[in-house]
Amino acid sequence: MLHRFLRALACVLALLATPASAALDPALVAQLGAEESDTRVEAIRKLVATEDPRVIEILKALDGDALALLDNGRRAVIVSGGQLTDAATGSAAGPAPANLETVVINNRIRGEVGAALAALRLGSGDRAERLAAAKELQGSDNEDALPIIERAMAKEADPEIKGILALAGASLALKSSEPELRARAARALSATDDPQVRQLLATMLARQKDGSYTEADESVRAAAQASLNEINARLRTTEIGAALFSGLSLGSILLLAALGLAITYGLMGIINMAHGEFLMIGAYATYVVQGIFRSHFPGAFDWYVVAALPVAFIVTATIGMALERGVLRWLYGRPLETLLTTWGVSLLLIQASRTIFGAQNVEVENPSWLSGGIALAGGTVLPFNRIVIVLFALAVLAAVWLIINRTRMGLFVRGVTQNRAMASCTGVPTNRVDMLTFGLGSGVAGLGGVALSQIGNVGPDLGQSYIVDSFMVVVLGGVGQLAGTVIAAFGLGSIAKFLEPWSGAVLAKIIVLVFIILFIQKRPQGLFALKGRSAEA
Amino acid sequence: MDRRQFIQAGGAAALSCTSISTAFGQDKTPIKVGILHSLSGTMAISETALKETALMTIADINAKGGVMGRQIEPVVVDPASNWPLFAEKARQLITQDKVVATFGCWTSVSRKSVLPVFKELNSILYYPVQYEGEELEKNVFYTGAAPNQQAIPATEYLMSKEGGAAKRFFLLGTDYVYPRTTNKILRAFLKSKGVAEKDIEEVYTPFGHSDYQTIVANIKKFAAGGKTCVISTINGDSNVPFYKELGNAGLKAKDVPVVAFSVGEEELRGVDTKPLVGHLAAWNYFMSLKNPQNDAFIKMYRDWAVKQKLPNADKVVTNDPMEATYVGIHMWKQAVEKAKSTESDKVIAAMGGQTFAAPCGFTIKMDETNHHLWKPVFIGEVRADGQFNVVWKTKGPVRAQPWSPFIAGNEKKPNSPA
Predict the structure, then answer these.
(1) Predicted ipTM of the assembly
(2) What is the DSSP string of A357-414?
(3) Do A363 and B269 touch (CB under 8 A)?
């Protein structure tokens, strides 16, 4: 008797302590792992309706591959750090057995979970979480979410979140049966930049096959038309802005790839076919530094890219100087031999990296501050890594310009390139200057490699894809001129990006090449020609 | 016994040995096979692993007694991603090295380059990569997928409710024969399913293209017109910049899924996969499949990588063309044993109907007539660790249709080599 009483008491206490947990039906939670997606979606919706605080944790586990089924699929558990927790009750369920298979989800379920989590998080106390949830709901077409959004809007104090919620609510209200509500929603939507909303408005204005409008009510149509015009005008500006930005971004990448060459080829006149491989070495240096940070300083991992810059510079500059001392200095004044030798060196470097790091590309992870981007109107995103690369290219350019034009070393470099014999007579150590200049050019290429590792492949062939572009930029810009290189890089980048939307990537590349051929016919010395006696040297 | 006697006795013994072995038809000399994969140049990234797989499989067969009691001796050459060099190296393998069969090629253009050589010299090529079909040669056995074993099921999946019920299709590829032909087939297939012309967009990029800003922006714009999926036949190095751009532009798999036909475990090793979770790939084998054959296959390759001191040996992965290579070599061995000969014509005749319990978890069969394997189709979603979760699969192996019914004029082509 007493025994039974105690058990009942325990039950009551448990109910009181965690009133919501008891409400979760373990079978419903286990249904998340069902075979059929329809069954799972049903389970997710029912779980959200319970508004139980545990549901967020369960859905997060499902989203993160951490939900597993036990007892022939009758009990759901959350796996975390080798320990199991019962999903329905939250009580510990012992260590995870080996080979425990977690529940596999597909995109449909992932979308459903995302929307469900967003709806639940609208009630969260954390502003950032509510904001993310509101944004997530913006694209949703789940009409069931409308009441949740309205309820959250009533409670919401933050104007930004409220604004987003209003838009999300309005795009759902467009489907309402009352013309008055629809018109109000259409007017409210003029503030949105969501391309899907634009599509919705456009469909309202479209005529059906029998000539009637999809949207029957005249005033609603007028409101939709006004909103649509406003959105379109705004989107056009951002589209042009985005195209400009992508041209700038491609230009800055070309500049980073070509800047080192502008020094070694442009100033020193060495046709360096191994230039691309210096980019590659810079990128591999980033990879190695990343590995060191991952194993030794995981806390500072986000800053490995910054640490990689000096490492890449020193490594490539050293290899560059060794190449100059060991090979190139015997070949000054013999461009053809230089070309063949450096080409051989490039093959050597490629195969060496293949032997050391393997033929496969290696993974270089973007640090978190380089991932993502700034969202503009119309869903256009300016990625952070590209913005940073543009700034980085300008910084490297400024540094190189300062070194060449404002330092004693730069003076020597200019002196030696203009008249080697005279410079030598006045006591300039030309051999050392040659070595240091080539080292500088190679080091700058190494810095370019660090930047390239953030947007593309890191593999033995990385350099091959940039060498032609680099020469194109330097030759077009005019040999011996930094300014020409800069203008050529940004010019080629922008032309390629403006051509691409209407000609396609393949044709754009061809058109750019044809343009360069024609241009070189007209001006063989490039955009900016050196004037005076030095030009003939 | 003085020295002369000793030499005479030895000679006699050696002679008798040879005569005995000839009398019993027991040739103990090794059988030479060629391995024709690029170990340098752009394709090295993909093909190096196939060379390793072939060497591993041959070493394994040799350790278990070889073929008809004879050891297999692999002859490895490097055609350096240079298509004409493929033909040259193939000729060298067959005429100078006297190989009886060759395992090799990756790109369709390299296969087309060596075809005339194999036909002229009547040797056999085992081609292990998914391709565009439209080919059926007596001297080639295709152990990779034909379009109906990869591209079409994947597109059907994307159109299904489970796959997101896509209404608009962005076909994105590298500009060469495989993507062009595949997209031609897909376009015809989509039209047969009632998809309108304006809902299909076809875009190509040059080999090695690395700036996907404009294309990703266009995908976004295109996706505003309805549920969109991207079908990617981008090959080789361009995939990394494409996926990085997708991740940074915030295009998520649940909004615009990308299904790729040339991206597998090996390609994803070079990518940070966290932003790619949920994007899809269609193959006939995934490393994440759970079955005893696959466990053994993966273990064998891992051990091999450690033993050969391959770079990053602790992180090696297996993929679909590697499995196809493994299956191809085993089927060749079985065919040789059935034919009791390494002569091309006899082996070709014995190949049809060969079966093998493959790492994909099925016992798959070389078709009796059309030189292609029956293969199961899997569709996988990228996981955060660079592996794939299988979200859809066929019930069993599917017969290949090298002549796609979606290309006009194919109805009359025979399903066996002319």
Answers:
(1) 0.72
(2) H-SS-B--PPPGGGSSEEE-GGG-EEEHHHHHHHHHHHHHHHHHHHHHHHSHHHHHHH
(3) yes
